[in-house]
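From the methods appendix. Each design record in this collection lists the discretized structure first, followed by the designed amino acid sequence. Records were kept in a plain field format so they could be parsed without special tools. The example shown here is representative of the layout used throughout.

RECORD:
C-ALPHA CELLS (507 positions):
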C-alpha cells in the first residue's frame, strides 16, 4: 500500500507538471516514458523513485523484465469495431528524443539511424516549434538501455558532435495512418482470435479467403487491406469452393470499386488480362507454370486441356512450341484468345472452346496421330491437365485412344494436377492415376508437391510417359484370320497319286 501511495503521488505530480504536458518538454527522460502509458497495470513488487535537480529517474532494474512502450497498439476503444472509423485510432504517446542543432541534423541521422524510431508514416526528425534552429530526433524506446539512456556507442557519437546525451520526452499523436494492417486488425478483432492480413493480389484486386470468425468484420478488413496496400482498389472474398465446370467461384466485394473486375497481371514477364469474376486465376501457381514450361523445348508440341486464360499455353508458345489450348468456359476462351494476341503468339496457338473429353478425343487425337506417324520426329509431346478437382478422372480417355501399333518409341508425357487429402498424397495420387489408366505406373512416374492448399489438402502433379499398352488399342485376336473354314466332311481328299507324289517327290 505504501508503494502504491508513493506512485500515485508521483504520477499526480507529473500530471501537474507544465513542462511534461508540452509537446516537447525539457525534462530529462531516462525511463519515465516506459511507465507513463501502461505501468499502472504492470507494477512490480518493488519500485524506487529518486528525485534529482530538474530530473525524474526510475530504477528499471527493479522490474522483472523491461517494460515496453506500446507504439504498435491503437487505442483500446477500437476493439469490436465492425465499421471502420479511422479517427478512433488516434492515441497520444510519449517517446524519447534528443534535441540538436539544425545544421548537424543530417549527419547525426546517418550515425544514429539504428536507434531512431521506425514507424510507417512517422517522421523521425521534428522541428522545434519554439526554436527554428533546433530539431528533435525521435528515438526507438526498444533500443534504449536498461536505465532509459542511450548506449555507449551512441553517447560517443553525440560527444563527437558536441551534443548533450540528455534524453527528453516528446509527446506525439499516433493516428490510423501510423499503424500496420495487422496491428489494426489485432486491435479490432476479439482477443485470442486468429488475425491474418494475407491475400492474393490479382492486379488491383485483393482476393481474401476469410474464416468464419472474421466474417462480422469483413467489410472493415477489406477496407484496411485497401488502405494499407498501394495499388489495391478492390477487396473481394471467396464465398464458395471452385465446383463449377467453368472453374470460377462466387465472390463478394468487401470494399472498394466493385464495377471493375477486369484486371491485368504480369507473370513470368508475360501479361494477362481477364475478368476476375468470370475466370480462374491463381497467382500462387506461377512457380508451377514456370516449372512445366521449363520442361519444354522449342518445337515441342503442347496440348493444354484445361488452359484457362493461358498461363501454360502462352509462355510455351513464346518458347516456340506448337500449342493446342482448350477451355470449356466461354469467358476463359475469350480471354485466352485476347492474351495470345496481347503477347503476340496468336499464330502459334490453336484455341478451342470444348469439353475436355471432346478435345482429347478430337483435336488432340488427330494431332497425336499426325505427330506419332512422323518418321524423324525430334520434338516431344506434352499434355497438361491442370484441373486439380477432377483432371485425374479424365485419364481414362487415354485407354485405347489410338488404333494400330506404336510407330514411335517416344510417346506423349502427361502432367496431371490433382488434390489429395491422404496422409501419403504421392501414393494416393499414383494409385488413383493407375486405376483410371488401367495399368501400373510403378517406376514410370514422378510426383511433385505443387502447394499446400489447406490443412491436410495438397495440390500435386503426377507426370508420366503414356504406356503404349494404354494408348494403343490392342489388335483383335481374330484380325487377319480367315474364318470361312469348311466343315470336315467337305474338305478335299488327296488322291492316291497325289499322296504318292507328296511322299515320294520327283527329284
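DESIGN:
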Amino acid at each position: 500500500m505504501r508503494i502504491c501511495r508513493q506512485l500515485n503521488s508521483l504520477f499526480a505530480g507529473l500530471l501537474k507538471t507544465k513542462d511534461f504536458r508540452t509537446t516537447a518538454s525539457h525534462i530529462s527522460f531516462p525511463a519515465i516514458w516506459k511507465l507513463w502509458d501502461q505501468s499502472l497495470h504492470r507494477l512490480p513488487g518493488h519500485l524506487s523513485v529518486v528525485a534529482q535537480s530538474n530530473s525524474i529517474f526510475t530504477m528499471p532494474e527493479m522490474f522483472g523484465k523491461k517494460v515496453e512502450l506500446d507504439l504498435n497498439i491503437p487505442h483500446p476503444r477500437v476493439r469490436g469495431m465492425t465499421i471502420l472509423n479511422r479517427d478512433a485510432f488516434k492515441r497520444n504517446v510519449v517517446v524519447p528524443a534528443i534535441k540538436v542543432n539544425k545544421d548537424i541534423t543530417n549527419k547525426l541521422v546517418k550515425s544514429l539511424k539504428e536507434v531512431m524510431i521506425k514507424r510507417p508514416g512517422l517522421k523521425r526528425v521534428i522541428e522545434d516549434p519554439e526554436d527554428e534552429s533546433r530539431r528533435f530526433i525521435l528515438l526507438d524506446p526498444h533500443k534504449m538501455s536498461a536505465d532509459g539512456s542511450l548506449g555507449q556507442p551512441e553517447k560517443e557519437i553525440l560527444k563527437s558532435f558536441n551534443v548533450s546525451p540528455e534524453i527528453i520526452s516528446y509527446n506525439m499523436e499516433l493516428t490510423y495512418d501510423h499503424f500496420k494492417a495487422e496491428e489494426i486488425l489485432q486491435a479490432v478483432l476479439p482477443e485470442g482470435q486468429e488475425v491474418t492480413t494475407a491475400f492474393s493480389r490479382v492486379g488491383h484486386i485483393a482476393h481474401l479467403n476469410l474464416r468464419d470468425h472474421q466474417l462480422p468484420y469483413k467489410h472493415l478488413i477489406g477496407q484496411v487491406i485497401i488502405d494499407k496496400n498501394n495499388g489495391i482498389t478492390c477487396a473481394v472474398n471467396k464465398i464458395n469452393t471452385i465446383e463449377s465446370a467453368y472453374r470460377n467461384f462466387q465472390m463478394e466485394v468487401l470494399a472498394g470499386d466493385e464495377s471493375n473486375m477486369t484486371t491485368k497481371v504480369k507473370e513470368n514477364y508475360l501479361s494477362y488480362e481477364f475478368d476476375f469474376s468470370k475466370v480462374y486465376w491463381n497467382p500462387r501457381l506461377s512457380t508451377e507454370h514456370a516449372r512445366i514450361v521449363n520442361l519444354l523445348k522449342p518445337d515441342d508440341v503442347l496440348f493444354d486441356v484445361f488452359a484457362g486464360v493461358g498461363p501454360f499455353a502462352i509462355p510455351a508458345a513464346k518458347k516456340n512450341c506448337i500449342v493446342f489450348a482448350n477451355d470449356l468456359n466461354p469467358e476463359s476462351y475469350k480471354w485466352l484468345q485476347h492474351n495470345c494476341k496481347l503477347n503476340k503468339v496468336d499464330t502459334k496457338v490453336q484455341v478451342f472452346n470444348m469439353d475436355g473429353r471432346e478435345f482429347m478425343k478430337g483435336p488432340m487425337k488427330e494431332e497425336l496421330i499426325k505427330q506419332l506417324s512422323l518418321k524423324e520426329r525430334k520434338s516431344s509431346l506434352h499434355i497438361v491437365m491442370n484441373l486439380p478437382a477432377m483432371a485425374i478422372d479424365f485419364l481414362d480417355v487415354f485407354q485405347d485412344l489410338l488404333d494400330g501399333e506404336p510407330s514411335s518409341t517416344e510417346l506423349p508425357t502427361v502432367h496431371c494436377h490433382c488434390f489429395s487429402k491422404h496422409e501419403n498424397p504421392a501414393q494416393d495420387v499414383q494409385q488413383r492415376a493407375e486405376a483410371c489408366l488401367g495399368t501400373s505406373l510403378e517406376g514410370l512416374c514422378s510426383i511433385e508437391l505443387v502447394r499446400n492448399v489447406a490443412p491436410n489438402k495438397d495440390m500435386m502433379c503426377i507426370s508420366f510417359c503414356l504406356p503404349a499398352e494404354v494408348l494403343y488399342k490392342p489388335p483383335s485376336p481374330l484380325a487377319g484370320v480367315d474364318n470361312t473354314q469348311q466343315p470336315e466332311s467337305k474338305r478335299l481328299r488327296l488322291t492316291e497319286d497325289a499322296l504318292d507324289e507328296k511322299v515320294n517327290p520327283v527329284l
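APPENDIX NOTE: Residues 1-68, 483-507 have pLDDT under 50 and may be disordered.
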